[in-house]
Amino acid sequence: QAIRDGVLAPGQRLAQADLADQLGVSRIPLRDALRRLEAEALVLIDGRRGAWVEELSPADLEEIYEMRIMLEERCMRRAVENLPEEAMAEISELLNRMQQAAESTSDGFATRREFYAELYKYAEAPRMRRIIMQLRGNVDRYHLLTDTSHTGHTHDQLYESIMARDGAGAAAALGRILEQSRDKLLKALEQTAD
């Protein structure tokens, strides 16, 4: 969570003894956790030199967004087309909460993560959902660090498409959201580098 929240920054060395003390755990469960985080591409481990928070280049971020757009458009279409009537109220509530939290970067990302994790369950593609959520976690921390958030107007289009059970429309709206998100993030990173 500290990595996803930007408390542990990209490129930061992870001193295992210090982390174990801060978290109140022994080094064995910490090593296990770091290995799991390495599998999620959040941590880089070099057996001789230690562990670091994974740092992504602009090219890495572009590649992740390219994968997200392909996977999430497909997952969105499937989820909306499979969405049962009894789930509509909950999805609508999550969409409304997501819209309200859009102005707060950290609250916005937590709420969006909750919304997409719940909606994508209905795609009935658990492996695809797991990969998508991992990719989201990899880039969301960069949005938090650069204080960039998603724009709101395309979420309105997403809302309307989901409520109308228009899978193709929802996928197209999501594609635009992801493209805008990518462009804002890359621009913010470029300005930070300057």
Structure commentary:
The protein is mostly helical and 194 residues long. The chain has helices at residues 16-23, 27-39, 58-82, 88-100, 105-119, 126-146, 153-163, 167-193; strands at residues 13-14, 43-46, 50-53. 69% of the residues lie in helices and 5% in strands. A three-stranded antiparallel β-sheet has the order 1-3-2. The longest helix is centred in the C-terminal third of the chain and has 27 residues, at 167-193.
Question: What characteristics describe this protein?
Answer:
194 residues, mainly alpha, three-stranded antiparallel β-sheet, 3 strands, globular
Short description:
69% of the residues lie in helices and 5% in strands. The protein has helices spanning 16-23, 27-39, 58-82, 88-100, 105-119, 126-146, 153-163, 167-193, and strands at residues 13-14, 43-46, 50-53. It is globular.
